[in-house]
Amino acid sequence: MTVAVSTTQKLTGTQSLKATLPALTSQAADDAGNAATSSVRTIAITPPPGTSNMWPGATITAHVWVPAGTTNVWTQLFMQSNNWASWNNSPSVIATAGDWTTLTFTVPAATAVFPGGISQFGVQIGVSAATRLQVRHLH
């Protein structure tokens, strides 16, 4: 995966963060009994302790852009906390191809009492139903 600043695709302002992902593929279950598969990629930050303003109850909004012609791509925001022991995520949504999809996440109240604070926060991107995706933009 590569990450760079983009001035081409942006929701507001003058730039966004462009993450170019390896191809994501999935395979539907088949008649021979092979199970369905799906690949997922994660774009995440690990905030240094005490430097994050992601306090319990805070709402975090991210916008994900998916290239036109892409189908069955889902995305969600997630947080790991308590020294990686706790996982919370927003509902996954099917991304709108050729447009921005807005995701929101509310930091759980329990994050304040966990002894490790926030370990990681990010976006997950996946495919389902035998789909393929090449490029993503995150702002």
Structure keywords:
single chain; 139 residues; mainly beta; globular; disordered C terminus
Work out the strand percent: over 45%
| Structural class estimated from helices and strands | mainly beta
Topology order in helix (H) and strand (E) letters: EEEEEEEEEEE
Could you report the average pLDDT, rounded to the nearest whole number?
77
The dominant shape is: globular
- What does the largest sheet look like? 6 strands, antiparallel
If you compute it from the alpha carbons, what radius of gyration comes out, rounded to the nearest whole angstrom? 16 Å
Termini separation (Å)?
16 Å
Provide a short characterization of the protein structure.
This protein has 139 residues and is mainly β. The protein has strands at residues 2-6, 16-27, 37-38, 40-45, 59-66, 73-81, 86-89, 93-94, 99-106, 118-127, 132-138. Helices cover 0% and strands 53% of the residues.
Provide a descriptive summary of the structure in words.
The chain has 139 residues and is mostly beta strands. Helix content is 0%, strand content 53%. The protein contains no helices and 11 strands. A hairpin with a 4-residue loop joins β6 (73-81) and β7.
What secondary-structure arrangement, pairings included, does this model have?
Layout (H helix, E strand, L loop, with lengths): L1 E5 L9 E12 L9 E2 L1 E6 L13 E8 L6 E9 L4 E4 L3 E2 L4 E8 L11 E10 L4 E7 L1
Antiparallel strand pairs: 1-2, 2-3, 2-11, 4-10, 5-9, 5-11, 6-7, 6-8, 6-10
